[in-house]
Amino acid sequence: MIMMNNLNSLPLPEDNQIEVKIAPPGLRIGACALNILFSIIALIPLFATMVVLIIKNSEQFKGINENNPEAVFSALSSVFAHPVFLLSILVYLVYGIWQIVIMSKHGQSLGKRLLKIKVIKSNGDEAGFLGTVLLREVVYNIAVSIIVALLVMIVSALVSETALEVLSNLISWLPNLICLVMLFNVKRDRRTLQDYVADTVVVKLPD
């Protein structure tokens, strides 16, 4: 059990606190899956528009060669500067900004909100933009990307190209696998690597 503070300050009277439970693995995995699904849906207009415009302007793309930069620019402009393509980018940007806003304000992505789980600080405070977005998402993913890239570079000097492809995929998935295992560690409040970076915990809100 964790006491979550309603007013984002400590200490608080008991009537301004809510008793919550640690979110179970199933809900956290489900929220992650929903977020991936929503991101794919938000990207569909972008990719669909790109494919349609490329097919529509296929004649321009057939005439492209490296000695004719004007033709290259014209062909690319027919797709990437098209109003419908720009509108589809705007749709995805709005979705992304909306996710950031609700994560900062409520400690919940859209997937977490639907499944009634929430990110809070380990002391019960609201995580806010710093904890939910900046540390938990941006800093964590940058750090993981750097570490994975360094590990791949080290491995590439030790193994063959065939083995490198397999090992690179395994290394890139390793942080996710570690986080998945950590979800089942009850003694550590099911905190993942992201939670330790941001000093957060994910809880199940009362029904």
What does this protein structure show overall?
By secondary structure, this protein is of the alpha+beta class. It has one domain (2-204). Helix content is 65%, strand content 10%. It contains eight helices and four strands; from the N terminus they run E-E-H-H-H-H-H-E-H-H-H-E. It has helices spanning 25-56, 58-62, 69-80, 83-106, 110-114, 128-156, 161-182, 193-198; strands at residues 2-5, 17-22, 117-121, 200-204. It has a four-stranded antiparallel β-sheet with strand order 1-2-4-3. The protein is globular, with a radius of gyration of 22 Å. The model is unreliable at 7-13 (pLDDT under 50).
Which keywords apply here?
207 residues, 4 strands
What's the story with the biggest beta sheet?
A: 4 strands, antiparallel
The general outline is: globular
The poorly predicted ranges are 7-13
Q: Supply the number of structural domains.
A: 1
Number of extended strands: 4
Cα-atom radius of gyration: 22 Å
Distance from N terminus to C terminus (CA atoms, Å) equals: 15 Å
How are the strands ordered across the major sheet? 1-2-4-3
Count of alpha/pi helices: 8
Pairing-aware structural class of the strands and helices?
alpha+beta
| Order of helical and strand elements | EEHHHHHEHHHE
The average pLDDT score comes to: 88
Strand content: 5-15%
Percentage of helical residues? 55-70%
Membrane topology: Multi-pass membrane protein
Transmembrane segments: 31-55, 75-98, 138-160, 166-186
Protein name: RDD family protein
Subcellular location: Cell membrane
